[in-house]
Structures are given as structure tokens and as C-alpha cells.
Amino acid sequence: MKSYFAGSALIFSAFSIVFFLAQPAEANSVIRSEETVSLAQEQTVEGDFYGVGSAVSLSGVIEGDAYVAGGRVTLNGTVASDTLAVGLTADMQGDSGDDVRIIAGEVTVSGRVRGDLFVIGQRLEVLSGAQIDGDVIFFGQEAVIAGSVGHDVLGHMTTLRLDGPVAHDVTVTVGELTLGERAAIAGAVQYGSGSPLVRAPGSVVQGAVVQGSGEAVNPAQRLWTVAELTLTLLFAVLTWYLLLRRSLESLVAHATTHYLRSGLIGLAVLLVMPFVAGILIASQLGVFLGGMMLVLYLFLLCVAIVGAVAVTGGFLRVLIMPRYTFGLPWLLFGALLYGLLLYVPFGAVLVLLMMVSVTLGAVAERIYQMVR
Predict the structure, then answer these.
(1) CA-based max dimension of the chain
(2) How far apart are CA 133 and CA 64, in angstroms?
(3) Beta partners for residue 162, in sequence order
């Protein structure tokens, strides 16, 4: 489980791209933004690579990290360190030297990941030739994992089919879990589901097979997962506070003062922006604009999720000690309350949605004020 923290750091990684826009890049970094972004097989980038376009294809060698976003993302080359990809579809056939984090609708992995593979999307397919040295962590609808997994399989999904070797445990909340003929689980299988396990005769599970309720297999494991995510968000918002303190304080002040207006704007952005992006992408003529809008939407959402921790602390200050100024203690209190809301399974979801919507609206308003 040590590497699950790295997987859950996806939110901070996406936020880091937004923060990058306000910081000078290193001299050896490569930044590309156009209709089609590509890195040929014979090309080498000595530092980090940043690419945004309607289609992004990387076949060369990147000696640092890769941060890419687009409608179609294809990763055929070699990345020495971490990889972060955001898109409608993502196809990874290359070699990543460390963790791979992907937010996409359809994700296909056929190469090697020497760290963890963390995916948020509709569908994930890990082909039989793929090799994942660390954990596979998936949050979405459908997952088919036929490649080898060097550590655990974790996550929350509607359906999961395992048809390859897993070196440790499988711990998932799932609607339906299937073990295929080539499934070989060296550890235990713990799954929360309302349906029984579907298991082929040739499948092997060396540890125990435990079925939970479907909401949570292990309450202690759920608590640990929420704690890790909360610490990740706290780390992200502290970084924001230390490096761009005035911008965060201004955001909190705006959100807590104009919360009704910001909430309505945030809900509008949350619901309308991906719809408009989808229409533009489907129209063919607006593929690039729609892809850029989708990327911007995902970035704004990631910033809002992180910023909502500070806004939660800001609302606590207004309710409890309105005469005090916003500062570091309120960030800590906000993170604690945010974590409690994440742990509570029912009504807290609505409260979290409201907090993220208010923050998203405040972010959108602040950006509009800066560019007008």
C-alpha cells in the first residue's frame, strides 16, 4: 500500500500543471501546444515534456517527466520518470520509468510501467503483454487487466475482469468481479460487491477470498485510503499557500463572501463546459477548440478540488471565529473537515459538491477578472 499515496497524488500532479503556467520552465524542458503535438522516435528531450493539443503522440525519449493533454493521447516512446496524461482516449504502448497517472475516457496499456498505474476513466484495458511493476489503481466503470501486476490491484469500478498474474492482493469495491482462466493471484482477494465472484476453473488464488458488502470491504482500509487522499490534498493546498499565498487568500475571501454567486457559476461550469466541449469535438470543425476546452475544464476541476480544502477552512472561520484572519490553522481545520466529509458515505457527498462548486465558481470569476 505504500505506493497508493503516489497514485492518489494524481490530483496534486494535475494541479501542478496549472501552477506551472505561473512559473518559468527549466531551460531543458520542452513545451508544445498546437493542433497535433508529436515527438518522433529519433528525438530526445533532456528534461520534462509538456504537450497540449487535439492529438498528442510521443514516440521519442523523454529523460524527465511527461505532462500531456489532448483529445487523443498516444505514448509509444520512453519516459524516464513520471507520466501524467489527460484526454478522451489514452493509449500507452511505451516504457515509463516511474508512475503513470491517466484521466481519460478510454485507456489502453500494452507497455511497461515501472511504478504504479493510476487511472480515472470509463474503461481501462491492460493487455496481456503489459507489465505493471507496482499497483494498478482504477476508479471508473469497466476494467480488464490481462497483463502482469507486480503489486496490488485496488479501486472502485462497476466491472473488473482479471486474467493475468497479480503478485500481491486484490482489494476492490466492484459491481461484478471475474477471474479468468489465466488469473493467478499470489495474495488475497477482498472485494465489496452485491454479486458473487465469477471464477474460471483455471484461475488460482493463493490467499483468502473475502466478499464484503459492496460499500467497503474493510473499514480500516477505507479510513486509511481517505487519510491518504486528505494528506495529498493538504500537501497540495499547503504548496499553493506557501508559494502563492495571496492568490489563495483572495480565492477564499471571494468564495466565502460571494458564495451564492460563486456556487451558481461553479455548477454552470461543472455541467455546461464538458457538454459544450463534447459538441465541439463531435462537430469535427471544433475538435481543437473542444479538446482545449475539455483540458481547461479538467484543470479547473482539479484546482477547485484542491482549493476547496482552503475554502472549507474559510467557511469554518466565518462560522466560528469571524474576527480572526484566514491563515495556516484554518487550512489544517479545513483539511480535517474535508477528510471527515470524504469518509461519511451519504449526505456529505452533497456538501462536498457544494464546496467544490463554490470554489470552482470563485476560480472562474478570478480568472475572468484577470483576463478581461
Answers:
(1) 67
(2) 19
(3) 145, 179
217-248: burial string, b at 16+ Cβ within 10 Å, e else: beeeebeebbebbbebbbebbbebbeeeeeeb
**pLDDT for 199:** 93
| DSSP string of 160-220, one letter each residue | EEE-SEESS-EEEEEEEEEE-TT-EESS-EEEE-SSPPEE-TT-EE-S-EEEE-SS-S-HH
With a pLDDT cut of 90, the percent of the chain lying above it is: 30
DSSP letter (8 states) at residue 116: -
What are φ and ψ of residue 75, in 5° steps?
-120, 95
**Considering only CA atoms, which of 222, 205, 206 is closest in space to residue 214?**
222
Cα torsion through 141, 147, 150, 156, rounded to 10: 10
pLDDT of residue 59: 92
* Low-confidence residues in the chain, pLDDT < 70: 1-27, 33, 213-225, 228, 281-287, 344-349, 372
Distance of CA 158 to the CA centre of its chain: 18
Q: How far is CA 138 from the centre of its chain?
A: 10
Separation between Cα atoms, residue 188 and residue 198, nearest integer Å: 15
CA distance readout (Å), 22 to 16, 17, 39, 89, 291: 10, 9, 25, 28, 22
Number of neighbours of residue 128 by Cβ within 10 angstroms: 12
C-alpha cell at 209: 477470498
CA atoms within 13 A on the CB side of 201: 0
pLDDT at 302: 83
What's the rounded Cα separation, in Å, for the pair 286 and 294?
A: 12
pLDDT tens per residue across span 255-269: 989 888 888 998 888
What does the alpha-carbon distance between residue 321 and residue 313 come to, in Å, rounded to a whole number? 11
Strand-pair category, 131-132 with 112-113: parallel
Sign of the Cα pseudo-torsion (177, 179, 180, 186, in order) = positive
The answer to whether residues 204 and 182 touch, using CB atoms and an 8 Å cutoff, is: no
pLDDT of the residue at 240: 81
Residue 251 exposure: Cα atoms within 13 Å on the Cβ side: 30
Q: Write down the pLDDT at residue 217.
A: 46
Nearest CA to 211 among 195, 192, 194?
192
